[in-house]
Design brief:
Order of helices and strands: HHHEHEHHEHEHHEH
Strand order of the largest sheet: 2-3-4-1-5
Number of domains: 1
Distance between the termini: 69 Å
Radius of gyration: 22 Å
Shape: globular
CATH class: Alpha Beta
Number of strands: 5
CATH superfamily: P-loop containing nucleotide triphosphate hydrolases
Helix content: 40-55%
Structural class: alpha/beta
């Protein structure tokens, strides 16, 4: 009986060692993915004030937090005025994906354009797409429409959407309705329509209304005009 007890204990010991090593490996993977993701900060939906942001479709956001959209290579577009928490939700979904071991990356539209232009000028656009665009299961592009793109920039951006179509998910945030997106893409109605056709084919549109969260305290004490916002 003693001999049998020692064998069971040794098996349990090995099982615990293997479990600890697996957990350590998962932690290292998550830390690496988090570092590569370039999130501007760590945000979660637990810190999103749905009580203040009453114009946010809470049920839809929590449904998307299940991350099924990534498995189906679907997109999300978060639309709304400045300051309603579009970026917060986008970052939260990306962080949640990373904690599930999913490779994701956050970038502003302006920074993405700089990267695309640099790769194009250096003649390494194809490898850039393979390494930085197609290798991701989730790409978050923040602030569509804050800076207008020229024609060449719009063409490069179109290729991001086209090459990820049905292959990987994109989350966009924008304060512009779709009817005004052409203004951000060199006023090219044809290109914008073709891009939106691919983007919206498999897409969840999260329309958010309300006032700026970051200005709520200033408005309460009368230090900010009611018509101002902050993204």
């Amino acid at each position: 009986m003693v001999k049998q007890h020692r064998k069971v204990s040794y098996a349990d010991f090995l099982e615990q060692v293997l479990f600890d090593e697996l957990e350590a490996k998962k932690t290292r993977t998550k830390n690496t993915l988090l570092k590569m993701a370039n999130l501007p900060s760590i945000k979660t939906l637990d810190h999103y004030d749905f009580n203040f942001a009453t114009g946010t479709p809470k049920a839809l956001v929590h449904e998307l937090a299940g991350l099924g959209f990534i498995e189906r290579a679907e997109n999300i577009v978060l639309l709304g005025p400045s300051g309603v928490g579009k970026s917060h939700i986008a970052i939260s979904l990306a962080y949640r994906a990373i904690m599930q071991g999913i490779k994701a990356q956050f970038v502003t539209a302006a920074d993405l354009m700089l990267q695309l232009q640099a790769a194009h000028q250096q003649g390494v656009l194809k490898s850039y797409f393979q390494r930085s665009i197609l290798a991701l299961r989730l790409l978050v592009i923040d602030e569509i429409g804050y800076l207008p793109f020229g024609r060449e920039e719009a063409n490069l951006f179109f290729n991001v959407v086209a090459k990820r179509y049905e292959k990987g998910s994109i989350i966009f945030t924008s304060n512009l309705p779709f009817s005004q997106w052409a203004n951000a893409f060199a006023n090219d109605q044809t290109l914008t329509a073709a891009m939106l056709d691919r983007l919206l084919h498999y897409c969840h549109i999260v329309q958010i209304t309300g006032e700026s969260y970051r200005l709520k305290d200033k408005k309460r004490i009368g230090n900010a005009p009611s018509n101002l916002g902050a993204n």
